[in-house]
Amino acid sequence: MRISVIGTGYVGLITGICLAELGNNVTCADRDPSKIQRLRHQEVPIYEPGLQPLLIRNAERGNLQFTTDIREAVKRSDLIFIAVGTPSLPSGEADLSHVEEAARDIALGMNEPKIIVTKSTVPVGTNHRIHAIVAGLTSFPFEIAAAPEFLREGSAVQDTLHPDRVVIGVESGTTEAVLRELYRPFTDEIVVTDIRSAEMIKYASNAFLATKISFINEIANICEKVGADVTEVAKGMGLDKRIGPAFLQAGIGYGGSCFPKDTEALIQIAGNENYNFRLLKAVVEVNKEQRFNIVRKLRETLGPLRGRTIAIWGLAFKPNTDDVRESPALEIIKLLLESGAAIRAYDPIATSNFGRLMGTASVTWCVSALDAADQADAVCLLTDWDEFKRIDLTEVRSNMKLPLMIDGRNVFTPRQMRAYGFQYYSIGRPGRSEERTGSRA
Ligand code: UDX
To answer: Are residues 426 and 360 in the same domain?
Structure first.
C-alpha cells in the first residue's frame, strides 16, 4: 500500500518503519527539517533498540522516504496516518493543535479518495473533528479511522511487529477491509469497532495499567508497615489468571510520555461530561507521592540531607530508553538539591536529555555507576537498568563513604545486600531492622 505518516516522533517513526518493513511504500513527513535531514542520513533521532537496522534496510530497498512536504506526502499515498504529538495543556486536557494542523495539511494535499487514520492518542470525538476540518477544506471523498497505538518505549519495534492486538475504529466496511489487510501480517487479533470506542480503548487501557501500578505501590506501602514483602505478594497475586503478573512491579511510580498525560486527559474527558473519575484521580495522586518515599527513606536514615552526597543511578523514566519525560528522577533530584544535598548522577544513555531538562541545576554528571557512588553517603537506584543488576557490589561499597542503598525499583534483594554489607532499603519489602528471620527475600 502507498502510505504516508505525519509526525516522526516515537509513534510515527516506528509505525512508518514497521509498515515499510512489511513491504508497504511509506513516506514519513515532519515539519522539522533537522529531523528529516537526520533520517535521510539514516540516523535515528530517538534511542530505540532495533530501529536503525530496519530504517537502513527499508530506505535502501526504496520502501521508505522522508520529507518535510506534508502535502506532497499526502498526494503520493492512499492511506495517511496522523501520528503527531498531543501534549498536555495546563488543564490536563490534550492539546490538539498539531492534530488539527495535520488535518488541514491533509485536506490541502488531497488529489484523490483517501483514508485518514489517527494514531495519535486523542480524546473521544476528535476523529469526527478531523473529519469536519478536512471536509471543510476539500471536496475529494475520504474516510476516517482510528488506530490507537499501544507500543512501549524500549520494546517498540517488537511491540509493533508482534502486538497483543490491533484496535481499529471505522465507519465503513471498505475502510475495515483495507485496514484488516494492512494489519493482518502483524496479528490475527484485530478488534474492529466504532471510532469513539477505539479512541476510548486507548485511554482506558493506559488508565488501567496506571491503576495496576498505583495499586501495587499502595500495597507496597502497607507491606512496609506490616512486615510483608510486596514482591512475594505480587507473585502470589499474579499467578491468578484473572489478575496476571504484568504491571505489578512496585517502585517509585510511573513516568514517561503516556501514562501521566493520558490519565490526566481521561480525568478531563470525564470532567467535561460532569463525571468525577474518582478512582483515576486517586491513581494519579498515589503516583505523584510514591516517588518521594525515596527522599523520606534517606532522611529517616541520614537525618538532614544538607552537606550529604547522594548518588543517583538511573535518570530515564524506565530502562532501555533515553526518554526522561515525566521521569520520577526529575522531582527526586530537585527535592534533594533543595534539601542541600550534592548530587552525583549517572544513566547509561539518558544523561544529556536529563541535563537539558534540569537546566542549570548543579548536578555532577558521572561516567559510570561506580563513579557516581564515589564517596557518596547513599546510592538511590531510580531506573532498573540491567547494567545495575550486574554491578560489582563489593567495589561499589568500598567506593562509598557510607554503605547505604535506597533501591527504588527492587533490583536487589535484602539478603544479597546484607551479604555485601549494605544498609539497604527497597520498596514494600522488610527493611534491615524489621526483616524477619527466615524471610525468603
Ligand atoms: C506505556 C504503555 O505500556 C503503552 O501501551 C502505551 O502505548 C504508552 O505508554 P511506556 O510509557 O513506553 O508505555 O512504558 P511502560 O513500559 O508501560 O512503563 C511505564 C511506566 O510505568 C514506567 O515508568 C515504568 O517504570 C512504570 N512501571 C511499569 C512500574 O512502575 N511498574 C510496573 O509494573 C510496570
So the answer is: yes
Reported as type and span, the H/E element at residue 319 is none
Annotated active-site residue 258? The verdict is yes
Tell me the pLDDT tens digit for each residue of 352-381: 999 998 886 789 999 999 999 999 999 999
Question: Residue 188 is placed in which grid cell?
Answer: 490475527
Instruction: Report in angstroms the alpha-carbon separations of 252 from 186, 217, 248, 287, 410.
Output: 34, 8, 12, 8, 10
Helix orientation angle between 293-302 and 328-338, rounded to the nearest 10 degrees:
30
Domain of 327: which CATH number? Answer: 3.40.50.720
Per residue in 198-237, pLDDT (tens digit) is 999 999 999 999 999 999 999 999 999 999 999 999 999 9
Q: 9: closest CA among 107, 114, 87, 77?
A: 87
State the closest ligand 1 atom to the C-alpha of 255, by its place in the atom list counted from 1.
23
349 contact partners, CB below 8 Å, separation of at least 6: 47, 316, 321, 322
> Is residue 247 within 6 Å of ligand 1 at its C-beta?
yes
Among residues 404, 396, 369, which one has the least CA distance to residue 385?
369
Q: Is the CB of 428 under 6 A from ligand 1?
A: no
Residue nearest to atom 20 of ligand 1 (CA): 254
- Reported as a pLDDT band with limits 50, 70 and 90, residue 440 is very low
pTM metric for this prediction: 0.93
Residue 441: inside a domain, yes or no? no
Q: What is the CATH number of the domain that holds 275?
A: 1.10.1040.10
Q: Supply the range of the domain harboring residue 363.
A: 291-436
Instruction: Specify whether 272 is located in the same domain as 298.
Output: no
The answer, yes or no, to whether residue 439 has pLDDT greater than 60, is no
pLDDT of residue 441: 34
Residue with cell 469497532: 193
> What is the gyration radius of the CA atoms in the chain, in angstroms?
24
Question: How far, rounded to the nearest angstrom, does the alpha carbon of residue 140 sit from its chain's CA centroid?
Answer: 37
| pLDDT for res 345 | 97
